[in-house]
Amino acid sequence: MAMLSRVADHLYWMSRYLERAQHTARLLDVALDMIPDRSPAAVARSWETLFASLNVTPPEDLPRKPRHITNFLAFDEENGPSIAHHMTVARENARQVRELISSEMWEQVNRLYLDVQTTNINRIWGQSSEFLSSVKQGAHLFQGITDSTMNRGEGWHFIQLGQYTERAGNVAALLNAHIDDQLASTQQGADQYLELLGLLRSCTAFEAYCKVYSAELHFEEVAEFLLLNDTFPFSVNFAASQMRAGLESIADLTDTRRNNLLIRRAGRLKAMLDYEQIDELIAGGLRRHLDTVQSLSAQIHSGVHDNYIAYSVEDKLTTLV
Amino acid sequence: MPATSPVATPDLLEHYDAGPAFDEFLGKDRQPRDHYQALYQHLRSLPANELNRRQSAADLSFLNQGITFTVYSNDQGTERIFPYDLLPRILTGEEWSTIDRGLRQRMAALNLFLYDIYHEGRILQDKVVPLDLVYSAPHYRREMRDVDVPRGVYVAVDGTDLVRVDNGRFLVLEDNLRVPSGVSYMLANRQVMKRVFPGQFSHYGVQPILNYGQALLNTLASLAPQHADNPIIVLLTPGVFNSAYFEHTFLARQMGIPLVEGRDLLVHDNYVYMRTTAGLQRVDVVYRRVDDDFLDPLTFRRDSILGVPGLFNAYRAGNVTLANAVGTGVADDKAVYAYVPAIIRYYLDEDAILDNVETFLLTDDKARQHVLANLDKLVVKAVGESGGYDMLIGPHSTAEQREQFRERIVANPRNYIAQPTLNLSCAPCFIDGQIEARHIDLRPFVLTGREITIAPGGLTRVALRRGSLVVNSSQGGGSKDTWVLTGEEA
């Protein structure tokens, strides 16, 4: 039997918000960690890059100080797209589908939520890295529990789709936020190395990158790795593969394969990432291509919503037997 | 050496005193009754502190599973764990068989009664039940006149509250014919019990209740409209903020059916559909856990956002089954309740196997005078309420509360009934590290479809406060596992 649209929607958003929470934790952790290595001017610039990467507009009066920014991105539920906010929304979505996810999944998302809720900036300040690591690990654990306890039905595919749609957009936004600094060659030598290191670590990609290339970091190769590599789980291309696979499985399970615009969009995204070359992408304007990636992800997102969640009842009534 | 001798706790019953109430556990000679003997010996054989350890294990198990309910007061809902008592309540096969027959008889009669009052109304014309009593019941639904429901089953799922009084007789305290809850606790209690007292079951010969989910599913399927060969069945919940949401998710999971909310359903051409990712899917049976009032804003309360516009018309057209049917609340009205023995005699020509509690109808002048003069000795209940809300327990009330109820009764006598304060039977409970006597009741669950199915036992509710007679979960009650013995002790 097909899945309730509302249920699919909750699973999809639960997964997106968990991904968003861990992405925020990772970027914040890297930014805090690199403060001692950066000049004061570079630190000031790095906060703006961080906000741009997360697509966040901080309040005007937010002091650009580590502690205030950490509080804003980790705990401020009122003004901020904070980790606490993302976890609350993820857990609320999970709560609505408790009969569908495994008890183990529920317990993990509930525990992670409670861990974030029961602490605050005063408690974690001084050990912020431990806290942010626990968020990342908690999200990884949830993913592992999901993989090992949930059957590979429609619900599972909506969870995958949510996670990788979120990830594709996040990594593309992250690269976008770093282009200017990198291509304008304002930085040389050690400074540039540091920024590229930060970029890779924001996607837990440093070690994986070194295995493919070398510890010598070049923007072109870093961009190639994060955008085009098809085997690394945090690359945009990998995310696109997962999105396309998820959409195909959902189409098969719901008998909506014919003329499926969503699958074509995902195919276009995948083809671009499979066959373009990084030097050509840069020559042709990397930002434009990153914008295309983000816009295709957004189109896939709204297409999922229009096709499976909030479709027009009139259209579907005509296909009733 | 730690003290682990078999008689580590010789004074096990030091704090156990059932007072004047019927004692389920000890006989007149203060010796355990036969069917409690083995449990008692087992408890005696346990090392000191072992019960504490098992109680903690049981509590933790409920906590981790998130088995909670919501209590409403001051407009704010809070989630609580339903307190669980470690010691099982035990009924003999013989005791159960009387209850079982009594419930079958009662449900058969009540379904016939509901059919009758929503059709010809013979019982009203014959003046067995007063006409104005039925038509003035808050839960009487005019809209149900001449609506035919599959197999004539109005009440597919019932939870009848039974109490045991002085001489050990079981009486029916009230019928719950609308959306009774609690069955998930019955099942969860058994699960936890098996975990904390492994081995006790095979020894005792306890009748299983595990197949309740399947029995419920079969019952619902047997009530599907004729057109549905392979009926699609859903559970309709008011949503995550409802006090029984845990139960709704639990039952949907047990039956493997979708848990839907009103916004997932829509009605087109008098058929009900649910929005799925594959398009609109027709729905044939709705096990609804939403009250009549909120089912359909076009027919009932207009401000309801929990319901489905047009649902009632689809129902009238016979294209979807609602379980329970609309309008069953008229038969569990506490004033109509007083007539159930007469209803049984009228339709079945039998005496009621399970007696009612003596009930004063306050519309009767003489009865009302008597009740108003004795408010401090009686229990007063609103006729359309359940869950222990809007209720006065005379002996435990203040003068101020009695005055409030006096005014309410005089203002609207049809809205209240009075009953004597019952001394509910007592059973041993594990409270703060020792075994004490607490008052209990019993809510068995009766399923009516093609046939009547009753899970042996039911939910035993416990008034956890010493001396308290209120077992409702919303008012500080807990529950315990209920064992019905096969009578073939191994």
Helix content of chain A: over 70%
Question: Would you tell me which CATH topology of one domain in chain B applies?
Answer: Dna Ligase, domain 1
CATH architecture of one domain in chain B: 2-Layer Sandwich
Shape of chain B: globular
Give the overall pLDDT of chain A as a whole number.
92
- CATH class of one domain in chain B, named Alpha Beta
Poorly predicted tracts of residues of chain B: 1-9
**End-to-end gap of chain A:** 16 Å
The tally of beta strands of chain A, per DSSP, is 0
Distance between the termini of chain B: 34 Å
Low-confidence stretches of chain A: none
Please tell me about this protein's structure.
The complex is a heterodimer of chains A (about 325) and B (about 500). Chain A is mainly alpha-helical. Chain A has 2 domains: about 1-150, no CATH class; about 150-310, no CATH class. In chain A, about 75% of the residues lie in helices and about 0% in strands. Chain A has 16 helices and no strands. Chain A has helices at about 5-35, 40-55, 65-75, 85-95, 105-115, 120-125, 130-150, 155-185, 190-200, 205-210, 220-230, 235-255, 260-275, 280-285, 285-310, 315-320. In chain A, helix 8 runs antiparallel to helix 11. Chain A is globular. Chain B is α+β, with helices and mostly antiparallel strands and about 500 residues long. Chain B has a domain at about 360-420: Dna Ligase, domain 1, CATH 3.30.1490.270. Chain B has 13 helices and 24 strands. Chain B has helices at about 35-45, 50-65, 95-115, 120-125, 130-135, 185-195, 200-205, 210-220, 245-255, 310-315, 340-350, 365-375, 400-410; strands spanning about 70-75, 75-80, 85-90, 155-160, 160-165, 170-175, 235, 260, 265-270, 270-275, 280-285, 285-290, 320-325, 355, 360, 380, 390-395, 415-420, 425-430, 435-445, 445-450, 450-455, 460-465, 475-485. In chain B, helix 2 (about 50-65) crosses helix 6 and helix 3 (about 95-115) packs across helix 11. Chain B is globular. The chains are: A mainly alpha (about 325), B alpha+beta (about 500).
